[in-house]
Write a sequence for this structure.
């Protein structure tokens, strides 16, 4: 499995964005330009280029990849028929204001990256189970509560993306970590938290 995170995107200037857009295939450039704000265009361009880098460096794939999306947005790689790989490849992408993240694997995978500072009591009550809410109640302060919530949010989002089910079902998302045999790799940085989810072998 390959995990790449680019947390330099806040330093992109207009010239860097122009260069990145020029390096994209037409369909992805059009996707990026649909964003009204520069930050969205940067994230769209940077995540695709990070995927290209992962495929090139670890799998020897030089072509610019195409992908199609399932009902809830989970992408599937579409590689050229001439591409010879021993196993199918799966990937997932995520972005936030400070970073973009890409994971490529020979097994189904999901990823989520989020800025810190996401905790809201109403949001926690919407997406967290009773046992998870109890953890917030016992947190020593707002920083610990926010760190816990951001960690849980990325774990739930990454698991939902792994399953390709989205976060629209409130009851499902509350218990998704308890009900899904999932392996979670969570990495915490000063500005963001990133989780990769894969299925646990049964």
């Amino acid at each position: 499995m390959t995990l790449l995170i680019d947390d330099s995107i806040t330093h992109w200037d207009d010239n860097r964005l122009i260069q990145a857009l020029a390096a994209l295939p037409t369909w992805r450039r059009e996707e990026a330009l649909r964003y009204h704000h520069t930050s969205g265009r940067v994230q769209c361009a940077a995540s695709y280029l990070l995927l290209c880098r992962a495929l090139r460096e670890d799998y020897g794939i030089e072509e610019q990849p195409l992908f199609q999306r399932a009902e809830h947005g989970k992408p599937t790689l579409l590689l050229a028929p001439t591409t010879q790989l021993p196993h199918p490849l799966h990937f997932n992408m995520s972005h936030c204001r400070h970073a973009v993240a890409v994971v490529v694997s020979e097994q189904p995978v999901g990823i989520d990256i989020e800025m810190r500072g996401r905790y809201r009591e109403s949001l926690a009550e919407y997406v967290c189970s009773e046992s998870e809410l109890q953890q917030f109640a016992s947190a020593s302060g707002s920083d610990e509560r926010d760190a816990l919530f951001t960690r849980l949010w990325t774990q739930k989002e990454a698991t939902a993306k792994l399953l390709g089910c989205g976060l629209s079902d409130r009851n499902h998302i509350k218990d998704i970590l308890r009900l899904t045999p999932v392996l979670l790799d969570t990495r915490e940085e000063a500005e963001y938290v990133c989780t990769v989810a894969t299925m646990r072998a049964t």
